[in-house]
Specification:
Largest sheet of chain B: none
Order of helices and strands of chain A: HHHHEEHHHHHHHHH
Chains: A mainly alpha (about 325), B mainly alpha (about 500), C alpha/beta (about 350)
Oligomer: heterotrimer
Order of helices and strands of chain B: HHHHHHHHHHHHHHHHHHH
Strand content of chain B: under 5%
Number of domains of chain B: 3
Strand order of the largest sheet of chain A: 1-2
CATH superfamily of the largest domain in chain B: MetI-like
Helix content of chain B: over 70%
Number of helices of chain B: 19
Shape of chain B: globular
Bound molecules: adenosine-5'-triphosphate, iron/sulfur cluster, magnesium ion
Distance between the termini of chain A: 14 Å
Chain lengths: ~325, ~500, ~350
């Protein structure tokens, strides 16, 4: 009972938040921009009669609140409007980019979680040692540089200079696939995708792993000074036993809570990385749409990205509800 | 004093040094003669004496003033001097703004309606700001009003936010208002510590000393502070210490590497990288400091209010915070930065505002948690049992106890704000008119700096960002040790 | 001091009496804490508001210079009663008479006057002081808040006096220290000094020694007794420790789930408890004499229930070994048994074989 109620509560919260986000995007664009058709009025590529049909479909001549409800209705039907720059429905444009973002995010998320927790426990338990000091320094120095700068360095070194210097291995400069990959066999295609994924993923993963292990380390250090650890020590358990029996489990719980929160940050990071590596994900799409003033696309991309974040958060929270019964009653 | 007096006195003193007695006597005689001639006969003595007395009187007056104003010690003394100076700076900034920026636009008949309305708003804004600023000095020197200082500060935070949101300081000159309010804000903080918290002074001093001891024992804190001081000094001096202006173009030397003429080389327009770097550093630091501190101050205001009032106010504020919190920050910032009225002339202050809008919930939630646990502590009950008002409880018990947390959060927040400014600028959503470190990196990227081997275009801004954020991170970690004694190594 | 004539309204009768003896009187105090409901729950569900009945109709009068004990299990509302009297928490209902006026109806300014005579000592000396206040500030806080002394030197003088009185010697050494630099016992002494700075006529002592080591309790309690004798202070002494209440208090009231179930002179309560709950409490106190140790089981069934869903009738009946059907219907009120001895149980006569 408690669990289902908890899940229902989180679900309702996620939906309400999503609703607010969607509303926010809609009004920001409509209030600030006025008649959205003006954006493409100067664009020569656009057929003169498209605006009229859109006017009807989106009720652009109606008052704002009616437009809002029409927008909501269309959204429920999975219609996010039409991108006049791409000449395609927004949903289709996003559909092309979403798999790449999911691939990047998903793999980064899993690797971050596993490696981060392991590394964090390692350095926390060897607190004050050389390993720990190196970690603290690495963490701070790596995070001091903006993420995109690291990406730029990677591209220049592994993509460009490795090629110039005739290294046996070099990485692709941009994109998620070889343009000619449709000619490849399936195995080759998979290899090609992974090859393109390697650099952006590495940059994202290094920062993620460092961040997670930093958090894990902080928690473990706090736990280590708790009374029950001292008791365990007094009982004569070895340090490793203490680490796995008590410390690890208690330090892990807050880390799991923060999984949800980290999704937003990860998406932010992936947007940066996508734009540095020209990786054709939804983040890059959002950015380009912004710079081109393709506002239907901006709206759509943001709605999808916010949805992803909330979904990640929701999953993490439900997971947490299974693991720790206390939160259900909170 | 006469000649004989002097010699006698001297003789007495030197009675035991017999071997050199004669020489000494001789010297004294000469000195006495000279004194007689130049000292007493010319009336110099009288003049000097008169001056001395007068000087002493003035000193006495000053000392009395000092006793009145600054009776505790040098630390507080310096703080009070700074308070007054900052207040003067704030007032003159406001004056400058009104006279040189707002009024001319208003009186300029060529302006469109929109401009006129904006200018009018601006003047009103200035007047409001001036009212609060003037009130500060009243509040400092009139004892009964002192406890209002924090309230003024909070009013001003919202004034700044409102002003920035209205897009008032959108022109380059309007930096005055920003600085005026910033200075004034510093005035309030200083005044609070040096005047208001009179009873707390001894205490805050010992606390300060103890904390600073912990801080300076931490090597990272020390390093961070040194780096930051160097960076801030460089940024404050800015292009004035280089041979060029930030927008000077040396077209004869384009894409030159570091040399005698250009310490850090030039870009494709012949801009001197070192000069641009110093210029950028200032803006980046300013964005970081303004955005970081405003964000935490707003968060603290909301967090403490929410915790203290509780009930539905708390519920609504926190639900709202939750909603903002779970949205992906960078895309949300894109969205806000792209608002047309912002996009046209996006100013660095807008970036600061956007940062505040996106990140206030983080600090609000943390502060609320702390304030809630403090609210349960019985010292609040015991103050209430002695008839403490809500204001007293908030300002004397709640805020001082969340202050350390606030401080670490401000530092973390500043660090983050600098990075986010760089992100936005790099992605083309920054302030295009003012150099910033992110903008430099973007420009370098656009010139294919790495691939073309123009390393001097890309490494200096990147390292500058790294040093800035690193110093903030180190200072933050040192502060963490003060706030969270558990982390101290034993 | 000035007027001790006051008008009391009890039910329908109105009596006027001159009572120079009474320091403070609480009448029908009630405090219900609303249970926090979520935003959505409160929006969508039209639930009847649920409350924690922390204090539910409590009345007592404390004489001048007397120490009045309030004992009971954890969570029965003892602290809340103390808070209500000092107006730290807002009353749900009831009145508190102090110097003949109902404190609850007073304006803020008038309340400030009254506060000069009411003080509190808290249970946990580690929590009752702001870590950012020095000892001087902590002790001087009431003086400053209530504008009793303006001159800083006088304040300092007064604080030094008080600190010396509670045995923190030399007092000068303590002025600039911070709470975390003091031991638990020293802190509690500071609390006492703070409570006594205003020479109040009435102090609520909320378990003043329960967090302290047994070895220093005696000293603290002695200091309190000395000071109260010196100033003629009345105490509301809150404790869960009957043995302690016995040594400290002149009279005792036993609380159960927000209600006083028995009240009377200490020795009488200890030796001839009338209420089943009091009996159980006393049975639970280990006697120092091993031979006299009671062998009978603790005559209470089950755990302390919450104050949310209170049983109908006598609220003790689910745990009472003497309970009968009638107990589920009738809510017993305090009845006068002897002079100054009251009990709230419908069966007290049968249980105790009183005619
Ligand atoms: N601020 C509050 N909000 C909601 N419920 C409260 C609050 N304060 C107290 N209560 C509830 O009121 C009841 C009585 O609390 P109180 O602190 O008076 O008990 P107590 O007898 O002093 O217990 P202890 O001996 O543990 O101190 C408890 O059930 C408690 O949970
Ligand atoms: S009234 Fe009944 S239930 Fe209540 S105490 Fe007396 S005997 Fe027990
Ligand atoms: Mg209690």
């Amino acid at each position: 009972m408690g669990l289902w109620k908890y899940i229902l509560k989180r679900l309702i919260f996620a939906l309400v938040t999503y609703f607010v986000a969607v509303t926010l995007v809609f009004f920001i664009y409509h209030v600030m921009q006025g008649d959205p058709t003006y954006i493409y009025s100067g664009n020569v590529h656009i057929d003169e009669d498209i605006p009229d049909s859109t006017r009807e479909r989106w009720g652009l001549d109606e008052p704002l609140w009616k437009q809002y409800f029409i927008f909501l209705r269309n959204l429920l039907q999975g219609d996010l409007g039409y991108s006049f720059f791409k000449g395609k429905p927004v949903m289709e444009v996003i559909g092309e980019t979403l798999p790449w973002t999911l691939l990047l995010l998903g793999s980064a998320f899993i690797i971050n979680g596993i490696l981060g927790i392991l590394l964090g426990s390692l350095v926390a338990w060897r607190r004050g040692s050389k390993v720990d000091a190196t970690f603290v320094l690495t963490y701070n120095v790596y995070n001091a540089f903006p993420l995109f700068f690291v990406g730029m360095l990677f591209i220049a070194l592994f993509g460009y200079y490795f090629y110039i210097w005739d290294f046996p291995i070099y990485f692709p400069l941009l994109g998620a696939q070889n343009p000619l990959s449709y000619r490849f066999t399936f195995i080759q295609q998979v290899g090609d995708v992974l090859w393109h994924l390697a650099m952006p993923l590495t940059v994202l993963v290094i920062s993620g792993v460092l961040g997670w292990s930093w958090f894990m380390r902080g928690n473990l250090i706090n736990v280590k000074t708790e009374d029950y650890i001292q008791t365990a020590r007094a009982k004569g358990l070895s340090e490793n036993q203490i680490l796995f029996k008590h410390g690890f489990r208690n330090a892990l719980l807050p880390v799991i809570t923060s999984i949800g929160m980290s999704v937003g940050g990860l998406i932010g990071g992936s947007v940066l990385i996508e734009s540095v590596f020209n990786y054709p994900g939804t983040g890059l799409l959002l950015l380009n749409a912004l710079l081109e003033n393709d506002y239907n696309l901006v709206q759509g991309a943001f709605i999808i990205i916010a949805g992803l974040t909330l979904l990640g958060l929701l999953i993490a929270e439900i997971l947490y509800g299974f693991i720790d019964p206390r939160v259900r009653n909170a | 004093m006469t000649y004989t007096d002097i010699t006698k006195k001297h003789e007495k003193k030197k009675r035991f040094s017999k071997p050199r007695e004669k020489v000494n006597l001789f010297i004294t005689k000469i000195r006495a003669t000279l004194l007689l001639i130049f000292w007493e006969k010319t009336g110099l003595k009288k003049a000097i004496n008169w001056l001395k007395i007068w000087f002493k009187k003035v000193l006495d007056k000053i000392y009395q003033l000092y006793l009145y104003l600054f009776k505790i010690n040098s630390f507080v003394f310096v703080l009070r001097i700074l308070t007054v100076l900052f207040w003067l700076a704030a007032v003159s900034m406001l004056l400058l703004d009104t006279i040189t920026v707002a009024l001319p636009i208003y009186t300029d008949s060529l302006g469109t309606d929109e401009v006129l309305i904006k200018a009018l708003l601006w003047v009103i804004f200035d007047l409001l700001a001036a009212a609060t600023v003037l009130y500060v000095i009243v509040a400092i020197f009139v004892e009964e009003e002192r406890s209002r200082l924090p309230t003024i500060a909070i009013v001003q935070i919202f004034l700044i936010l409102a002003g920035l949101l209205l897009g008032l300081p959108n022109s380059e000159d309007s930096v005055y208002v920003g600085f005026a309010l910033l200075f004034n804000f510093i005035t309030i903080v200083f005044a609070y510590f040096s005047f208001v918290a009179l009873d707390d002074q001894v205490k805050s001093l010992t606390q300060f000393r103890k904390s600073s001891k912990v801080f300076f024992r931490n090597r990272m804190g020390k390093i961070g502070l040194v780096i930051l001081v160097v960076l801030v000094t460089l940024a404050a001096l800015g292009p004035s210490i280089t041979r060029y202006e930030a927008d000077d173009m040396d077209l004869a030397n384009i894409h030159e590497g570091p040399s005698d003429i250009h310490i850090l080389g030039t870009d494709k327009f012949g801009h001197d990288t070192w000069t641009v770097l110093l210029d950028s550093l200032g803006i980046s630091l300013l964005v970081g400091v303004v955005a970081g501190s405003l964000c935490v101050l707003l968060g603290t205001t909301i967090g403490v209010t929410s915790a203290y009032i509780g009930g539905w106010v708390d519920t609504i504020l926190m639900r709202f915070a939750d909603i903002v919190l779970v949205m992906p920050p960078l895309p949300l910032m894109f969205l806000l930065a792209s608002l047309p009225f912002l996009l046209g002339t996006i100013h660095w202050s807008m970036i600061a505002i956007i940062y505040v809008i996106v990140f206030w919930p983080v600090s609000a939630k943390l502060i609320r948690g702390q304030a809630l646990s403090l609210k349960q502590r019985t010292f609040i009950h015991s103050a209430k049992a002695s008839g403490a008002s809500n204001r007293y409880v908030i300002f004397s018990h709640l805020l001082p106890n969340v202050f350390p947390l606030m401080l670490t959060m401000i530092i973390t927040s500043m660090r983050q704000a600098i990075l986010y400014e760089a992100f936005l600028a790099y992605l083309g959503l920054g302030d295009p008119l003012n150099n910033s470190l992110g903008l430099m990196l973007q420009a370098a990227q656009n010139q294919f700096a790495l691939a073309s081997g123009y390393w001097w275009l890309i490494f200096p801004p990147a390292i500058a960002i790294a040093l800035t954020t690193l110093s903030f991170a180190f200072i933050g970690m040192a502060f963490d040790e003060i706030v969270n004694p558990r982390l101290r190594k034993r | 001091m000035l007027h001790v004539i006051y008008i009391r309204r009890t039910g329908s009768e109105t009596m006027t009496l001159i009572d120079k003896e009474i320091a403070i009187e609480a009448k029908n105090l009630k405090k219900y804490f609303p249970l926090q409901a979520g935003l959505f729950a409160s929006l969508f569900k039209k639930s009847e508001n649920k409350f924690v009945h922390a204090v539910d109709d409590v009345s007592f009068a404390i004489k001048k210079g007397e120490t009045f004990g309030l004992v009971g299990e954890s969570g029965c509302g003892k602290s809340t009663t103390g808070y209500l009297i000092l107006q730290i928490e807002k009353l749900t209902a009831g009145s508190i008479y102090f110097r003949g006026v109902d404190v609850v109806t007073l304006s803020k300014e008038a309340l400030k006057e009254v506060r000069k005579d009411l003080q509190i000592i808290f249970q946990n000396p580690y929590e009752s002081m702001s870590p950012r206040f020095s000892i001087l500030d902590i002790v001087a806080e009431p003086l400053r808040l209530l504008n009793i002394l303006d001159d800083e030197n006088e304040i300092m003088q007064k604080v030094l006096e008080e600190l010396t009185d509670v045995g923190l010697i030399p007092a000068e050494d303590f002025l600039d220290r911070f709470p975390h630099e003091l031991s638990g016992g020293q802190r509690q002494r500071v609390s006492i000094a703070r409570a006594f700075t205003l020479n109040p006529t009435f102090i609520v002592a909320d378990e003043p020694v329960s967090m302290l080591d047994v070895s220093i309790r005696v000293g603290i309690l002695k200091t309190m007794q000395e000071l109260s004798r010196k100033h003629g202070t009345a105490f509301l002494f809150i404790t869960h420790d009957l043995a302690l209440a016995r040594t400290m208090c002149d009279r005792i009231a036993v609380m159960y789930l927000g209600r006083i179930v028995e009240q009377g002179p200490t020795e009488e309560i200890i030796h001839t408890p009338l209420h089943p709950y009091t009996k159980a409490l006393i049975a639970a106190v280990p006697s120092p004499d091993p031979d006299a140790r009671r062998t009978e089981e603790l005559p209470i069934i089950g755990e302390v229930p919450s104050g949310i869903d209170i049983a109908s009738g006598c609220r003790f009946h689910p745990r009472c070994i003497y309970a009968i059907e009638k107990c589920k219907e009738i809510d017993p009120h305090l009845e006068q048994v002897k002079k100054d001895h009251k009990v709230a149980c419908i069966r007290y006569k049968e249980i105790n074989e009183i005619k």
